[in-house]
Write a structure and sequence with these properties.
Blueprint (H helix, E strand, L loop, with lengths): L4 E6 L3 H10 L5 E7 L7 H4 L6 E3 L2 H5 L6 E4 L6 H10 L3 E4 L7 H14 L3 E3 L7 H12 L5 E9 L6 H5 L4 H17 L3 E9 L5 H4 L5 E8 L4 E7 L7 E8 L3 E4 L8 E4 L2 E4 L6 H4 L1 H17 L7 H20 L3 E2 H5 L10
Parallel strand pairs: 1-2, 1-4, 2-3, 4-5, 5-6, 7-10
Antiparallel strand pairs: 7-11, 8-9, 8-15, 9-10, 11-12, 13-14
Helix pairs in contact: 4-5, 5-12, 6-8, 8-12
Length: 347
Amino acid sequence: MVKKTSVGIIGAGKIGKLHINNLVTMNEVNIRAISDVYIDQMSDWVNTLDVKYTTKNYMEIVNDPDIDAILVCTPTKLHSEIVIAAAEKKKHIFCEKPISFNLEDSLKVLDAVKKAGVIMQVGFVRRFDRNFRQVHEIVKSGKIGTPHIIHIFSRDPEPAPRKYVRHSGGMPFDMTIHDFDMIRYLTQFEVEEVYAQGSVLIDPFFEECNDVDTAVFTLRFTNGAIGVVDNSRRAEYGYDQRVEVFGSKGSVSIKNDTNHTVEVITKDGTLSDKPKWFYLERYNDAFKEELRSFLNCVTTGTEPTVSAYDGLQAELLAHAATISLQEKRPVKIQEVLKQTDLRLRDH
């Protein structure tokens, strides 16, 4: 009989509960413990789960010798300290994005993970979406030649709650970081410069938070190719998730996912379904697949599809984009790297 992977989850908010509810459907895993500071308020939900224990103190999970892997689903400000503690106890780690808001803290995480020899996967769920994965494979095969221009459209149907926005790190760390990871995943290129232009067109509250709700990010890759990321916090028609990679021999693109492909054609025009409403619907299958992939890495010892290094690279672009928004100028990645003494080369 194959031994099940024993897992502890730290953080049982919206994303933590999503992962837990997906894990209970998987035969290869045993949920041993859940930690959350508000766990006492979740008794009705917890009682539906087969969990050994719950705790408010996440160190109980970190120190539990019967736990093989830990999911870190807390607010970002706690990620680095939890991951480092878990790595020191030789736990494999799945951490939601971003690793942290601070490059030095994230580098400490990578150092700890490398020293411990454990697996760390970062929660960039879109890599596990069947459509994005197919584009990745097509580009990798050379079918469209060398990528020249990459467009990503990523628009939410409505802004996140204000309480969340205040501590989100701003659009580059909250929204665009997914697109920064995706653009690297699709092209396998590294970025050398970021230029961001943003506005507040939806809700003045974002200006109070020194944030934007509408933005375009232009990226120049080291080989001269160009990427464009188009973000909005409110698309009235639903969750807009499209991409096009244009290459020297052709192009490949993704349309929005809809609940059905029925089209009604009359003398007044063509009517089809709107995009799925939000990420829970759009990436429902991908959320399950990323956990299966992580568990497989834990079992087989293989490298994860989204490594800690990938997480750090996306974070690096988010820092560059933040500076660009604030100072209204292009920002070289080397400029941001100087803050880390170029230690990225060690990873």
